[in-house]
Design brief:
The chain has about 220 residues and is mainly β. The chain has one domain: Protocatechuate 3,4-Dioxygenase, subunit A, CATH 2.60.130. The protein is about 5% helix and about 20% strand. The protein has one helix and nine strands. Strands 1, 4, 7, 8 and 9 form a five-stranded mixed sheet that branches. A four-stranded antiparallel sheet has the order 3-2-5-6, with no helix packed on it. The longest helix has 15 residues. The chain is globular, with a radius of gyration of 17 Å. The protein binds fe (ii) ion. The site of fe (ii) ion (FE2) has 5 residues, from β5.
Length: about 220
């Protein structure tokens, strides 16, 4: 068994036997600090030590509508943070994998979501950006927890595309959100794992909430 597959099996054993703790990883340098000016009742519910999202070897990640606010040709970048912008900074990481657990290098991961007020930027590229996975299929994005807009729970839109698999368009959800269950698109297998165990009142780039989601693309390669 390859080390990678063995790792996934170990992860599954953890799922069966106890809480899963996100591994630590180096954080990208943050150039700005962000005022958390959103009201307390608008803050995302960031749960601790949740089980991870479905691993490779399971079904491919479900697709969901792109909605009406997708803008093509977003800039390539790994941080969507805006100078002086409001919102709760988070770091979203994960891998792009095939259903055979093969990391997919060079996959495009295109993300878009609202600002802290629940507004999309449909004229520019605020909170829009894409990046390419590394040799191990990994991506890492600095951004904020999106706000809420009428009729939807908190969510992040993602489009993942590789050279050999069909493109995946989907949405990611936050755990423990009051509006999840009533949302017409929400589904539990698109929940991110969110670890805020290191978060303190004095938020810094070292202790911001860490969200994790692995995308599993249809196809074997
Ligand atoms: Fe949306």
């Amino acid at each position: 068994m390859s080390p990678l597959k063995n790792g996934w099996h170990s992860r599954r054993r953890l799922l069966k036997t106890g809480p899963f703790f996100l591994g630590s990883f180096a954080l990208a340098a943050c150039r700005q600090r962000f005022a958390s000016s959103i009201q307390a009742n608008e803050r995302p519910a960031l749960a601790q030590n949740l089980p991870p999202t479905p691993a490779c070897g399971d079904d491919p990640t479900p697709s969901q509508t792109a909605g009406p606010f997708y803008t093509p040709n977003s800039p390539e970048r790994t941080s969507l943070l805006e100078p002086g912008g409001a919102g709760t900074p988070i770091i979203l990481t994960g891998q792009v994998l095939s259903t055979r657990c093969t990391p997919i290098a060079g996959a495009l991961v295109d993300v878009w979501h609202t600002n802290a007020k629940g507004e999309y930027d449909n004229r520019g590229y605020t909170f829009r950006g894409h990046q390419f996975t590394d040799a191990e299929g990994r991506y890492q994005l600095e951004t904020i927890a999106p706000g809420l807009y009428p009729g939807r729970t908190r969510h992040i839109h993602v489009r993942v595309q590789s050279a050999h698999q069909p493109a995946l368009t989907t949405q990611l959800y936050f755990p423990n959100e009051p509006l999840n269950e009533g949302d017409f698109l929400y589904r539990p297998d698109l929940l991110m794992s969110v670890d805020n165990s290191g978060v303190s009142a004095a938020s810094s780039e070292e202790n911001r909430p860490q969200a994790q989601f692995n995308f599993v693309l249809m196809g074997d390669s």
